Amino acid sequence: MNPTALLIRLIDAMALTESEIRAVFQHSEEPPTDAHIQALLLPENNTPCSELQLLQFLDGLILERRGPPSKPAAPPTSPPTLTPNLMLKKLRIALNMREPEMLQTFLAGGKPLDKGELTALFRKPGHKHFRPCTAATFDAFLTGVALKNAAKSPTHSD
């Protein structure tokens, strides 16, 4: 997976404005400059985004949407590996989605899941019922998020 393409897809799906993106990135240890953020948003984007920056963006999104945790988290020993399962988990937290909303989002994205399939995506990798989230499944989730955001936003007539 290309972290830059995923970041752009997330931003588009969630219909984030430049100021919202800037606010999310401000929670990073080393926030990107305004010029870097603007370059990421250009259609001919050739500004790279690392996996670490994408993870920091997701963590910042959680902080921006949900606020700081009630108890401090233990400092990580090393950055986690970027997987669709991890990104899905972080988005679920940031968007404050429960199981019914998740199932509806996947259905709207064209990938209906049942409860067992959904919970398998959030299991630990060593668990016997763990299921890796495929790129198609993650894309369906982002499509569902985009469709829900499009339905919420008012239409503009020029």
Descriptive notes:
The chain is an all-alpha fold and 158 residues long. It has helices at 3-14, 18-25, 34-40, 51-66, 84-94, 99-108, 115-121, 135-152. Helix 6 packs across helix 8 (135-152). The relative contact order is 0.14. It folds into two domains: 3-66, no CATH class; 84-152. The mean pLDDT is 88.
* Topology as a string of helices (H) and strands (E): HHHHHHHH
Share of helix, binned: 55-70%
Shape: globular
Q: Ranges with pLDDT <50 over ≥5 residues?
A: none
Category from helices, strands and their pairing: mainly alpha
**How far is it from the N-terminal to the C-terminal residue, by CA?**
37 Å
Arithmetic mean pLDDT: 88
Instruction: Work out the count of structural domains.
Output: 2
What gyration radius follows from the Cα positions, in whole Å? 16 Å
Task: Tell me about the largest β-sheet.
Answer: none
- Helix count equals 8
User: Could you tell me the number of beta strands?
Assistant: 0
Beta content: under 5%
